[in-house]
Amino acid sequence: MASLSLQLSSLHHTSTNPLILRSTPLNLRAPTQKPFSIRAQSAPVLSQDDLKKLAADKAVESVKSGMILGLGTGSTAAFVVDKLGQLLSTGELSDIIGIPTSKRTQEQAASLNIPLTTLDKHPHIDLAIDGADEVDPNLDLVKGRGGALLREKMVEAASSSFIVVADDSKLVSGLGGSGLAMPVEVVQFCWKYNLVRLEGLFKDLGCEAKLRLVGDGSEKPYVTDNGNYIVDLYFKNPIKDGFGAGKEISSLEGVVEHGLFLGMATSVIIAGKTGVEIMTK
């Protein structure tokens, strides 16, 4: 697709130089993928929150009145929900119904007077917008560091379109390549048994498995909205075969869901300090 250029005045930063918006179709037939590149002539200095808001605002441009929307979870998705609430309050959007992917997203949306529903009542979703923890060149994702991977995957799998919003720190050449957590939701019963098995699946990748704790020095396990635990996998080397890895993880009894979101994103909006890039399939 041709390059597009626009002035992003909504950031409230003072600059006379435009950022660059580039929409790039993804060639899935190519044997190898080129690294992401984000280019611009010049741009104002933006914080990570600025970048997240930039991507979120661009994604919301795809929302139309009357849509059923999947509402994601996490810091970037929270900007999406805020923007939707703003547009509903001004009348720029109407008749939007949201399906939240977590209790905290449900609470945020309700506080903004966004009407909510469930998959039981609306099993077909027009559009889901959510963040990601990792994005590879094939638009495959790692998600779930916010603990909502099961509900996120259910909602996004039921959506006709799934737009991912992220800042450029989330780009990786291969899933697991950030060295940060790839979550697996497991039942509480004999969780350690599954932790050991999960670590063993990927020992050739230098994988270390850890039970997710509440944090703040607490030794109390983190419990998901579904009453389960999360085992976080940390890889020294990227996953070679995402689909194969997902299949192996899912085959273990007691595993509820994993954070590999493969072949699900229809587009990814990446905001960087030099502009915005839209990757599409």
UniProtKB/TrEMBL annotation:
Pfam families attached to this UniProt entry: Rib_5-P_isom_A
Q: Which CDD domains would you find in this protein's record?
A: RPI_A
Catalysed reaction(s) here are: aldehydo-D-ribose 5-phosphate = D-ribulose 5-phosphate
**InterPro entries under this entry?**
NagB/RpiA_transferase-like, Ribose-5P_isomerase, Ribose5P_isomerase_typA_subgr, Ribose5P_isomerase_type_A
EC assignment: the record states 5.3.1.6
List, in alphabetical order, the Gene Ontology terms for molecular function in this entry. ribose-5-phosphate isomerase activity
Q: Which GO terms describe its biological process?
A: pentose-phosphate shunt, non-oxidative branch
Pathway noted in the entry: Carbohydrate degradation; pentose phosphate pathway; D-ribose 5-phosphate from D-ribulose 5-phosphate (non-oxidative stage): step 1/1
Name the keywords, alphabetized.
Isomerase
Q: Which family does it belong to?
A: Belongs to the ribose 5-phosphate isomerase family.
Matching entries from NCBIfam families are given as: PRK00702.1 (NF001924), rpiA (TIGR00021)
Q: What is this protein called?
A: ribose-5-phosphate isomerase
What species is this protein from?
Herrania umbratica
The opening ranks of the lineage are: Eukaryota, Viridiplantae, Streptophyta, Embryophyta, Tracheophyta
This chain is encoded by the gene named LOC110414628
